[in-house]
Amino acid sequence: WILRRMREEGKYLDGREIKAPPQYFLGAAASPFASNMKFQALREQKKVNAGAQFFQTNVVLDANALDVWLNEIAKRNILDKVYIMIGLTPLKNYKTAAHMNNKVPGVFVPEKILKRMGNAKDKGNEQEEGVQITLELLEKIKTKQGVPGIHLMAVGWEEIVPRIVKEAGLERK
After folding, report:
1. pLDDT by residue (tens digit) across 13-24?
2. What does DSSP say about strands 149-152 and 54-59: parallel, antiparallel, or unpaired?
3. Residue 132 belongs to what H/E stretch?
4. Is residue 17 classed exposed, middle or buried when 0-12, 13-18 and 19+ CB atoms within 10 A define those classes?
5. I need a surface site. Which of 57, 78, 93, 102 has the fewest CB within 10 A?
6. What's the CA gap between 71 and 79, in Å, rounded?
7. What is the pTM of this model?
8. What is the pLDDT of residues 142-172, one digit of tens each?
9. Which of 81, 88, 79, 68 is nearest to 139 (CA)?
10. Residues contacting residue 118 through CB under 8 Å, at least 6 positions apart
11. Could you tell me where the DSSP H helices lie in 55-125?
């Protein structure tokens, strides 16, 4: 709200004029799986009302369940008022998937993903399975209403990003 006021009204919080108001594009974090999705959508609505123009979600590993959150956002008539970037991360191994599910707030790793990564561990191809899961999620998310972008977070595995971008068909032409 403070940043929006500075941009739109050209005033500091105390009411003083800003000689050259900033030209912010205001964003906020969104966490679809942090709690009940109706509650999360209410939080997102408050952020839009305060001035958020885009959301960047934390890691999403369940594209189907994401629909519930998007529907709750749509019910609040804010889906067309904000850009949404869905956070994705390629799972490098089973250990990472299990850790994220238990230790990273707001991140939910579906049982079927954990099983796939566990099976891949047994077969010695965890990284490839993690890439395939990411590509499948990307394909599903690309078609979602109100989601014009993703945020690919390859923490500690940045070299995989060009491959994912290419195989997902996201290269600039």
Report:
1. 999 999 999 999
2. unpaired
3. helix 126-141
4. exposed
5. 102
6. 9
7. 0.89
8. 989 889 999 999 989 999 999 999 999 998 8
9. 88
10. 94
11. 63-75, 94-103, 111-123
